[in-house]
Amino acid sequence: MLERPFMDKVIATAAEAVARIEDGASLAVGGFGLCGVPETLIRAVHDGGATGLRLASNNCGVDGEGLGVLLAAGRVARVTASYVGENKEFARQYLAGELEVELVPQGTLAERLRAGGAGIPAFYTPAGVGTQISEGGLPWRYAADGSAALASPPRETRVIDGREYVLEHAITCDFALVHAARGDRHGNLVFHRSAANFNPLAAMAGRVTIAEVEELVEPGELDPDRVHLPGVFVQHVVALTPEQAARKPIERRTVAGRAA
């Protein structure tokens, strides 16, 4: 690898940036549906051939887009997510017992990722109390006959100030893949509106975080008060080509009828 100036975190290609992701690695991935998804990095992971991946992300993309690319190729062993979403292959693999899935309340997933990045091992939350989230029995993997081959265990609960809470553990991953609108060579990132979604949280949870950016700028060009994620959480930056930056697939297209 060519030497780079101190603090310069830019990697020339997505393939080079994800080259260390091996079989069985855990990945925290930003995005919500197809908004703010690190498409180029995901496809580079696919091309790299890693399998048995364990993902933590809000959802698993859609068929043929986002994390759905890895899912369709049979590269994913486990997913921690908030919902199955619009991905039919995700639902098929889960119900067929081919994929282990831990469904987590969306706010809880966000906080588990943030806690992992902040060094907080666990926290109590009221979300999920009195449900299978806290009581256990939520199917993580199905058997061929439709029964639960692997179910979630009961969680520790505690009453604080008269209210019951469930203990949730932080999430940390080997790698994180995120997408940002702008970034500098030090890894400071700025996200565009709703494309922020899970990206800052996923970036915090990765031991090695790789960011793809639509626009790469020099250090000092970003207003410090407008930086959404400081470079301390980012190890590698990949600048997208104009074609890659412009590609923004739509999850669900709704077209209104023309007026008569």
Structural summary, described in words:
With 260 residues, the chain is α/β, with parallel strands linked by helices. 22% of the residues lie in helices and 27% in strands. It folds into two domains: 14-119 and 173-246, Glutaconate Coenzyme A-transferase; 122-169, no CATH class. It is built from eight helices and 13 strands. The chain is globular.
CATH class of the largest domain: Alpha Beta
Q: Catalogue the unreliable spans.
A: none
Number of separate strands: 13
Query: Which fold name is given in CATH as the topology of the largest domain?
Result: Glutaconate Coenzyme A-transferase
Q: Helix and strand string, N-terminal first?
A: HEHEHEHEHEHEEEEEEHEEH
Percent range of helical residues: 10-25%
Number of domains: 2
How is the secondary structure organized here?
Layout lengths: L13 H4 L8 E4 L9 H10 L4 E4 L11 H5 L3 E6 L6 H8 L4 E4 L2 H13 L3 E4 L6 H4 L3 E4 L5 E4 L5 E4 L2 E7 L3 E12 L4 E2 L8 H7 E12 L18 E4 L2 H5 L14
Parallel strand pairs: 1-2, 1-10, 2-3, 3-4, 10-12, 12-13
Antiparallel strand pairs: 5-9, 6-7, 8-9, 10-11
Helix pairs in contact: 5-7
Question: Could you provide a short overview of the structure?
Answer:
With about 260 residues, this protein is α/β, with parallel strands linked by helices. It has helices spanning about 15, 40-50, 70, 90-95, 105-120, 130-135, 200-205, 240-245; strands at about 25-30, 55, 75-80, 100-105, 120-125, 140, 150, 155-160, 165-170, 175-185, 190, 205-215, 235-240.
Descriptive terms for the model:
260 residues, alpha/beta, Glutaconate Coenzyme A-transferase, 2 domains, eight-stranded mixed sheet, three-stranded antiparallel sheet, 8 helices, 27% strand, globular
